[in-house]
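Data card: per-record layout.
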Amino acid sequence: MSRKLAFTKMHGAGNDFVVLDGIKHSLPALEPIVQRLGDRHFGIGFDQLLVVRPSRTADFRMEIYNADGSQVEMCANGIRCFFQYLREAGHTALDELRVETLSGVVVPRYAGPGRITVEMGPPVLAPAKIPTRLGDPAGAGPVLDARLDLDGSPLRVSSLSMGNPHCVVYVDDVDAAPVETLGPKLERHDAFPNRVNVEFVQVVGRAHVRQRTWERGAGETLACGSGACAAVVASILRGVTDARVRVELRGGDLDIHWAGGTEGVLMTGPAATVFTGTLELEGG
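The structure for this 284-residue chain is written out next.
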């Protein structure tokens, strides 16, 4: 016996997603099938799976799964696609929504055709809340250019949370950065008890950086919105960029603005539907 699972494939600056609608459709238990759905040869393929759910505390709730089956707190490119999907599917006509995530309520809003601005909230700088063992465990942060020992060699990294943990590594040439080798080692380093997303950042100018990201549970992706926010916050705190920065990613550009202090980080970028379809689930 088989069951058909309806899905929508989307992307935000090349960071690709599959959206499942738990309001329109009765969904099966997801944990056993996430890895199959995420397989790019035997399933649909995605960086993250996004699930639409009703919420008691906001307009909607977004569940996020990595391709390896792990559930995560927040995905900034994902929430832009989530917002776009809700409007295209007829769930809402509002230009601004409150979306419940594991990291709290996030507010995306319409910024023109195919573009969404997301109020990401203020960055989390306290080591214990990121969480990281770098810096003063009882301190308020920030964790900037902290020494981290990796395979017996010292490395300088910065760390903060944008609803999910990030480790920022500055490089002279992002195209030559050892993303595939250094990324997985940092993701699972003891300094990051919940694992970590790793940003490799090249500062081009006061308003322009280039970035590649190794996402925990997904590997290198073409874009990471929360990672772009983390990279800009770290760069502002280090004094190497201004408050408004264009982040050049392999899948496209994001515009990030942070006024500092307890102000929220604003991220503006694209979201697009690629195709819709159904997948046969055996035993459903």
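Known properties of this structure: The radius of gyration is 18 Å. The mean pLDDT is 95.

See the next section for split statistics.
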